[in-house]
Description:
By secondary structure, chain A is α+β, with helices and mostly antiparallel strands. Chain A has 22 helices and 21 strands.
Amino acid sequence: MRFVSLEVKSFQAIAHAGLEFAPQLNVLFGPNDLGKSTLVTALRAALLVPAKSAEGQAFVPWYRDASPQVVLVFEADDGRLWRVIKTFGEGKAELASSKDGRDYTLEAKAREVDQKLRTMLPWGAADLGGKARGGFGIPDTFLSNVLLGAQTGVDDILARGVDGDDSESAKKWLTRALAALAEDPLFKHVLDKATAELDQYFTETGRRRGGARSRFAVVGDEVKKLADELAQARAQLDQSASTEGLVAKLRHEVDVARQQLKDATVMVDEARRGVERSRSRVTAEAQVAEARAALARIDEVLRRAETLRAEVTSLEATVAEDDAALRRADEATRAAGQATKSAEEALQRAQSQEGARARELQRANLTSRKAELEATIATLAPRLEKAQAAQDSVKQLAAVEAEAARLQRELDALDGQAQAAKQGVEVARLILDYGRWKDAEKGAERASRARAELVALEQKAKAVREQLAAGEAELGRREAALTAAQSGLPSTEQVAAFARLEADRRVADAQAGGGLSVVVRPREEVRLHAEVDDEAPVDEVVRANKDRAFDAERKVTLALGQMVELEIVAGTKAARQQRDTLSKRWRNEVLPALTKAEVTSVAELQARHDALAKERSELQGLASNLERWRSEERSAREQVALIGRQGSGAESAEALQRRRDRIPQEQLAMIAAAFDSLGAGWELQTERAERDQQRALETMVEAQTKVRAALAVASERKASLGAAAASAHGQGDVTVLAQQLTVARNEQAKLVVALQALEAEQGAEVKTAQQALEKQRSLATAAEQSRVAARQKLDASRALLHERRGQAGALEAEVARLDRPKAQHALDAADAALAPLRSSPVVTPEQLAEAEQLLSAIRDQSSEKEAEFHKADGALSKVGGPQLREHVQQLEEALAAAKDREKEVELDAESWQLLQQTLRDSENAQGGHLGRALAVPLAAQFTELTKGRYGTIELGPDLTTLSVKAEGAMEDGAVVLDALSVGTRDQLASLLRVAVARQLKTALVLDDHLVHTDADRMGWFVEALRKSALAAQVLVFTCRPFDYVPADVLDGKSITKDLGGGSLRLVDLSRVIEPWPERKGR
Amino acid sequence: MTSTEDDIVLKLLHTADWHLGRRFRSFSEEASLKLSRARLEVLDRIFNEAERHAVDAVLCAGDLFDEPNPSSEWSAGLADCLARRKWTNRPVFLLPGNHDPLLQDSVWFDPKFRRALPAWAHVIEAPGEFALANGCVLHAVPCESRAGQLDPTAKIPSRAPGDERVRIGMVHGSTFDAPNAQTNFPIAKDAAVERGLDYLALGDTHGFRFIPPERKQPPTIYPGAPEPTAFDERDPGSVAIVFISRQRRAMVTPRRVASWDWEEVAITSMAQLRQLVARQDLKSRVLRVTVDLSVSAPELDEAERLIEQLGGNQAVHGMAGVLDLRRDRLELDVSNLSDWSQTLPQVLQTTVQKLQTVAHDPLRRPVAQRALFHLFRSTRKAS
């Protein structure tokens, strides 16, 4: 792993910083207190501190309330670029990957980022586990201290080992990395063999190899191909089997249909014969029925003749009886005539002359008296009516008088109310006048005050106008200056594009780079001309068999004498082309713009743009102020005009006096009190009151008019009723007249009753005689009716007897003609003909038609089945079942064989995998003592550094540094670490860190290390670091750049300087780190 | 044959089921090709037999090609093979079967193929009667589709009263006793009797069969495929030589023409394996070897070596003509590896022990055994 770039925003003391790292040694220098360690903290935070953690709060900037953000790009061992963005405080994090450094694909967000990072970078940190927890801080592990730790923790680095880690990940990684340091040759052979075999099966990332030559692909493709073919063949076979099944089914159905057809044909033939038989039977049955009917008819005639004979005898007896009955009725009729005559005579006696005359005289007297009484009643009734009418008129007159009096009272009340309303209207008008007078008086006072205000306002408006004029002038001047400043600059979008191009170019440079190490070893002395990257060319003579080494980042050009010129270029062709394309674009597009803008970098250009943007923003503020001032000036002018109008509208003192005089002096106090009680809405209220009083007054006048008219009508009515009462006078007393009339009517009623009694007396006697007569008459009538009935019955009996005797004569003649034995014989013959036909069933023509219809349907059905069968048979002949079965069987066998081969390949691959894994596990188990492996190279370096003063270093199994051996120090040469000087311990710790990073081939960050180291050892150390950086990137943060490069290299002009063909990059952090403006001012 | 030569009125060679162009997908590409070519190579031996017995006609009873449209390699091969014979009075009747039915676009109507056939090679294009030597006749009915449920012999007319000629029938299909015969042109067992035939030449079944088995007259014969096509075939690899006497009695003799024998061998001991490898007849064998062995590490090494001898490798041909090896039950006995592992460095001894532990898991046993075997071989080779 190596770092590619770091961008820090709003992070503790740093407002912004952006860095690009070289692949090998990076010396990042700057004075103390600049923020170097903050950058290291940011780098560590990007990799190790969860964005949501409480520790993230510590990164909040010191001078601003902003969210700290770190953007770190690093390259994994497989060449893939990973970008971590963490915004602390907000708790946001994302991890994206890219193959080209341009297009990134989001891989994880939020908490998953840290989990993934811990998987990618096995530094011994614990897994973050299930749910997000914000409390995780920087993991304190062996590798996080070794690779990213502060130099102040030297003792921590030496004293702690990997066993103290939260997880085994670092130990495993180290074990793998260190294991190769001490391997048995046979073990190595087997491991290499397993690796080589596995390489045939799997890629470096553990994926199965693809492609035509892949062992998996060969068998897999074969299996797949065969499986596909088999599936296809099986589908065809299924179809074929289905067709075969269908054919078999149809064949059976055809057989059934044929049998059905045969049966139906037989049935129809039988039906036809049945119909014929049925027809014969019907004929025979008809003949039998006919013979039987003829015989029945004969028997019927004989039976009727016998019946008639009996009937005639019976009728003769009836006629004799009826004749006797007639004679009895004649006798009864005569007796009834006698009795009726006697009754008539009795009635005549009851209606004799004497009784009638006495009753007539009494009736005449009563009738006379009744007539007298009717005349009296006729006289008295009209008189009584007139007297009653006069009495009513008197009563009505009294009512009219009472109404007239009520109306007069109402009229009086209305007069009083009208008067009050008039007064109300008057008072309201006075209040209005009073109020308006008071208003006019106040208006005069306000006008007086406004005139005073006007003077002050006019002064203020003048001041605002002056301020406005000055502002407009300034705005014009600064806008002109801004326009002039912008004229030479590219647009913001162009600058952004330049920045992107610059970033792309850096990435392309990084991708095209990668480092070159060229060694020239001439066989004989030769003149060498060398050009390494962008450095100055070198011309020198190289002696025979002497090595001359060149380290470059991108390119080395060598001219060997006059014979050979070599150009060695780093990076893939695609990367170089990308770099060249971007460089060309840089030259053509960006450099002219920079020159024109008289700047040296895009950053400067951006700074210029930022300054211009700031100026533009300020000008916008100024313009906004101007607008505000204009508004104020307008407002002041409007106020002046308003106040001016107020001053000019006041009434004069004379006009006010006139208003005052309109109010009577004696009412002034009352009006003032009423006005004060009304308050603010006095005018509207008073006007409304005036209108209300006026309307009431008008209503009252109208009511007065109506009441007066009603009074006039009542007066006229009174006069009329008085006259009517007077005219009835002399008709007598109503009560007396009424009594006289009642007496007359009572007597009249009694007379009517007496007359009715008289009539009743005569009626009783006559009525009894009449009733007896009526009874006798009724008996006579009944006797006559009985006689008539007897006569009629006798006549009818005689007629019927006559008729029956005629019928009997005719029937006897017919009987004489009949031949019953012949008819009986005919019946017997017909029965004999029918007998054989009775056993056969009746088949009707309809039943025959039905059977024929069924036959036709079965025939159609059979034809259809035959057609279906032939069709299916045809289909079967195309699909071909038997061969398909053979084909499927062959494919099944082939597939089974292919699967066996596939299984074999899988088994082989898995077994090699298992072997390799087991070999490694065994190796790890053996090589669990990590210190033993690392101690050898570490001790070698330490000995070289200390020029032999110290020898063997003893490291613990988990890389804890236990002791070193010093030359002649003790008998066994071992000294404890505490005995070493601070500087030496620092150097040992640094060496350990470098050795670990080198073995792991991962980036190492050294922050202000070796501060206690003398120049001699420092020189050795720098060289060691450069060598180590060839294998693993090293970032050195230091305030002593001169330890790494000669002073003349640091010209103070460039931010970044690449040396040694890219093997060393110097970065001036004082020009990279942007502190907060507040801090700058300190 | 009991009849004398003078009694014989007709000599026939009856063959069928050549299946030219058949592929053998269970085997490797190379083996499959080898076996496919063998089907063409056998034709010369068939025609040699015809010449040797001086037959009057060669009856080829269907499924001569494996599919209706074989690659021209096979049709041209057949035509070449026939054309090489300078026959004049020995007609060859080629009958389309259900594998190569007489479809419009089939090889039988391929003009190139037909032009390449000699004049005496006749393709049966419709049911009909064909003249044979000495007044004998052939009634042949071709398959015109891949399947059918009508008995093709139904199209052969019955012997007319007074017809005393030798009547030979030739059709392709299954007799009713065969599985799925219903749709594979089912042939009644008594068809020869019913149709008044003196010999019924059939094709379809790959083994030599006499129908009915009691060898009653007239014979109905399947000669079988001249080269086997599968391990489970009974008596394949022959043709039928048929002599018909004046009394219209047919005498049938199978003649072997195959060059390949298909054989299945089960190996359950090292001794058996060693014996197998010692055999001298393996070159013409298609061997299916099923190994069911649990062996020590050195034995496994030997077994691997012997198996390699049988099947060959990229450099050397195997002893078996074609090897179909089933070795999934060949196991390394992991219980006793101490003799070998003691010679190894400590780290490898640890590895052996770990793999032995893994082998205790029945699911991972095969992988662990194979890994141990790899380890064994790698250390052996290195040493």
